[in-house]
Amino acid sequence: MANVKVYDMTGKETGSMELDDNIFGVRINEHLIHMAVTQYLANNRQGTQKAKTRSEVSGGGRKPWRQKGTGHARQGSTRSPQWRHGGVVFAPVPRDYSFKLNKKEKRLALKSALTSRVEADKLIILDDLKLEGIKTKEMRKVLDALKVGNKALVVLDSLDRNVILSARNLPGVATVQAGSINTYDIMKYSTVVATKAAVSKIQEVYA
Fold it and tell me: What's the pLDDT score for residue 71?
């Protein structure tokens, strides 16, 4: 089992925590990580883009001029794509971009993403994260004490309004509950900051 240092809110080391190798020490599957990220982004697409084809635009009921003798190129309809107000060739139509991943694949992708953060020393564990009020400055002070970069994902074990609202105005910082983590968020943010309780909950849910 991997041992990761545990810090307090001032950045002082207070101990260590053993991580479950079945979650934080698996063989990294980059293909599944890519598929999970692609699925997340695809499932968020609206798919409402639409343009009219030549069969849907107005006009074009008759041939604009006779076939020969005018000096113009022959034309059959004013709805042709080369005409102003003509239809679009291969126009996009509303569609569903979402696709499915098996439950085992999604779990392994998540475990691979978590393992990658452990191997890169980008998983920081806090013994606890509590703020007395909603203060962005205090949240920034905590992250600076932990020497976190510009992009960080803060994982909480439960809904903490003070922490969530304090982190909301920090660019590049996001909060998520342990039961709602996903591969996309883990890979998007360079550092994962999690409380001990949140890590325990992740190990309990995904064991």
Answer: 95
Q: Looking at the DSSP assignment, which residues form a beta bridge with residue 156?
A: 177
Domain ranges, ordered by start, for the chain = 2-45+98-206, 50-93
**Kind plus residue range of the DSSP H or E element containing 187:** helix 183-188
pLDDT at 1: 65
Residue 153: name the closest of 115, 191, 121, 199 by CA. Answer: 191
∠190-192-196 over CA atoms, to 5°?
170
User: DSSP assignment of 152-179, as one string?
Assistant: EEEEESS--HHHHHHHHTSTTEEEEEGG
Q: Which two tokens stand for residue 1?
A: 């089992």
Q: Taking 80 as the threshold, does the pLDDT of residue 98 lie above it?
A: yes
* Amino acid in position 5: K
Residue with tokens 């999970």: 36
Q: How far is CA 112 from CA 16, 36, 42, 143, in A?
A: 22, 11, 20, 25
Q: What is the DSSP letter of 123?
A: E
Q: Is the pLDDT of residue 175 over 90?
A: yes
Architecture, CATH, for domain 2-45+98-206:
3-Layer(aba) Sandwich (3.40)
